[in-house]
Description:
Layout: H1 2-31, E1 34-39, E2 45-51, E3 68-75, E4 78-80, E5 89-97, E6 101-108, E7 111-119, E8 136-142, E9 161-169, H2 191-204, H3 212-219, E10 220-221, E11 224-227, E12 231-233, E13 237-240, H4 244-249, E14 260-263, H5 265-271, E15 284-286, E16 289-291, H6 297-311, H7 321-330, E17 333-334, H8 335-348, H9 353-356, H10 360-365, E18 379-380
Parallel strand pairs: 1-5, 6-9, 17-18
Antiparallel strand pairs: 1-2, 3-4, 3-5, 6-7, 8-9, 10-11, 11-12, 13-14, 15-16
Helix pairs in contact: 2-6, 3-8, 6-7
Amino acid sequence: MKKILLLLFLSLSIFFLTACLDEEGNGDKGDSLYEITFKLEDGSTLFSYKSDSNEDLLFPANPIKEGYVFVGWFAEGEKIEGGKVTGNLELVAHFDEVLITYQVRFFDGSVILATYEVPQNGSVADKIPSTDKNNYIFDGWFLNSTFTTAFNPSNTITQDLDIYGKWSFDTSGIPVGEYTGYYSNLNGLSNSALQTALRNMIKNTGSQSGSTGQVKSVDSWQGQYYLIYTGLGSYGNREHTVPASKLRDAKAPEDDLHNLRAANSGVNSTRGNDPFGPGSGSWKSSGGKFYPGDEHRGDVARIVFYITTRYNVPMTAVGNLQMFLEWHAADPVNEFELTRNERIFGYQKNRNPFIDHPELAYVLFGSTPTSTTYETPMYQTLGFETVSFSNIFTA
């Protein structure tokens, strides 16, 4: 009986001891919760929670900071990406600044001079490409290719930009003849003043008229007609060197004698409204472009210079400036052109200055002249006859 009572006592003791231990264990578990805190770099608390020991770390959604990218959570300089809770833990969000850059391109016409990646709110003051160009004066940088909005390189950059340089031809390097008579208003001028006076003269002097009879009159030569593209021959019809359709597009008159030339009807029809293009030898039509022939390319260039300036017709509608400048130099003024210019003056009271003073093409349109002597204009004698200046205006 005593043994039974002893065993019962021991059993009850163990039961009560276990119950007490369980209660104490529960109390200890409550005391062992750990504080997990997530903070931002400024010290403010983003999120916190309590966790038992050895539980998986729980992470909040990645915080967002404008202009920065979230790198991760760090504790005492070490990046924490997971693990178990082993004690109180404070994690701080780290961010890297996002470097925003913009592309800035510098142009000379359609040619890219330089391209830079510039940090937001930076500038290109220390990145300006060279503006040195022989025979040109730099006029500044602009935000558009029409040069209406100036650009200051010290301004902060806040978007992608295309910057266009503007240069003016330096006419001070061109020896020019003394301008008298019709051209007296140009005398003593240079650079922009000379360019402005020349444009005004072309645009505002005289009138225009171009009947068939007048075209025949100004293009007659040695009992025949000097036909554009083909030379001496019978009159066919009138050729608009700058096509009538391009003049209509510019709302310009179509009957200016400076633009109208006697032509062979078949060749005129072949050319149609095609723009001019490069070539050599006699006239030819190829690939939608028309080459006027070696002996006529200079005539064409000087007509184009005059008509596009007087009536604001885009030169690109009939060719390109560099090509026409090359033709102007390669096929100099001949005596027929001089005579024709004088005859047109009798009808319209205006002259094509690029015939009387070939150097003015470089004054107005730039490029380096192929000759540095302009006191006497560049002339050539037509291959079929040598005509002296004493009888030039009676031919």
